[in-house]
Amino acid sequence: MELAWLDMEKAMGTRIRGVRERRGLSQAQLSELVKSRGFNLHQTAIAKIEAGKRPLRVGEFFALSDCLGFTPMGLFYLPEDAIAPRPLKELDALLAAAHESARESEGSMLQNINDLITIHVGNESRKQLLAMQMRIALQREEPAAEGMSDGERQAEA
Q: Where a domain ends, among 50, 82, 114?
């Protein structure tokens, strides 16, 4: 009977290691997370738990489960395929897809920036042209206005 319990502890250690790795956490990072929940669980203790060489206390199990994003029962009954490390080919494919998506997004973003610059520059040119036309119009009206009396200017306004 004791052998079955030891096998269960080793299996739980393997499960914790698998989930930790899937989450991208090192043993040291997990140790810090567990410490933030009130348990002084050193990285070497986590290594021993994962290897099945150190018993896992109930409180530690609850803290580890929480740090890994599970309820204790959720971690206990988690299917094996959810904790198995992903094959390298699958990770490479995911990485390639992420790079391609980033390239497409970058191209789209650059096109949008180019369009905004074109619109802005176009508007600036129109503003400058309008300002120049207004200055010319004002210059044409100034000589005519100089010959008017105050009464004529007020009537004109």
A: 82
- Render pLDDT for 112-123 as a digit per residue (tens, 0 to 9): 777 777 776 666
Alpha helix segments (H runs only) across 1-149:
2-22, 27-35, 43-51, 58-67, 72-76, 88-146
Q: How far apart are CA 74 and CA 65, in angstroms?
A: 8
Q: What is the pLDDT of residues 52-86, one digit of tens each?
A: 999 999 999 999 999 999 888 888 887 776 665 55
> Rounded to 5 degrees, what angle do the CA atoms 40, 31, 33 make?
95
Q: Does position 2 have pLDDT exceeding 70, yes or no?
A: no
Angle at 97 between CA 93 and CA 102, to 5 degrees: 150
Q: Which of 24, 58, 82 finishes a domain?
A: 82
Which residue range is the domain that position 137 belongs to?
88-156
Number of domain units in the chain: 2
- Supply 31's token pair: 């140790």
Dist CA 13 CA 48 (whole Å): 8
Cα 52 from Cα 13, distance rounded (Å): 6
